[in-house]
Amino acid sequence: MSSGGTDKLWTKHKGSAFPLVAEAIQEDLEAYRNSEDEIKRLKHAMGMEGNEADAAISSLFSDTTAKLGSTVTSLPQLLEAKRLIDLHTNVATTLLDHIKQRKLDVLFELEQKLLQHSPLEMPLLQLLADLNNPEDILRVILINYLCEENISKVGRDFFKFLCSNSRSGKHAV
User: Fold this and answer.
1) Would you state the torsion angle of the CA atoms of residues 154, 155, 160, 163, taken in this order, to the nearest 10 degrees?
2) Average pLDDT of the residues in 19-44
3) Which of residues 70, 102, 134 is at a domain's end?
4) 70 and 29 belong to one structural domain
């Protein structure tokens, strides 16, 4: 995806973790909504009806005129911000769907525990049973195998079996 150098969120967060990007998108969305609310308030103020005191109308009109001028000047920027927010939200939503579908958050936590030799909540095979992507399962098994200090002959045989079946196109896991 090319941002053309104008997409500040992309430039700032292109290598960031998903939760940080989601938070930044939320902040941008809130800033946009605040600007949108200000425009709505201005529209409401401009439609003020006749029984008000002339001084209040005059004061409000000059204040509203200044705000309206500022809003008109910033309208193209707001429209571009809205376009980018919509784009980022759509990308983030699609990514989140894939993260949930493959349980990447669970996989990340599991892989970190294996790498740090932290205890697991349940046996590894039971955790693997909940996964539905053979590549993810194989990756977890490889990480576990590579992080294991004492690998038994059975473990080595199991690993060889998995490797030979993955090369032949069979899904042993």
Assistant:
1) 140
2) 82
3) 102
4) yes
Q: What is the pLDDT of residue 167?
A: 56
Q: Is the pLDDT higher at 6 or at 64?
A: 6
The H or E element spanning position 25 is helix 18-46
Residue 101 CA: distances (Å) to CA of 30, 113, 159:
28, 21, 27
Q: Does the residue 2 lie in any domain? A: no
Name the phi and psi angles at 171, rounded to 5.
-100, 95
Biggest alpha carbon distance in the chain?
93
Q: How far apart are CA 154 and CA 26, in angstroms?
A: 50
pLDDT in tens, 130-153: 888 889 988 998 898 888 877 776
When divided into structural domains, the chain yields a total of 2
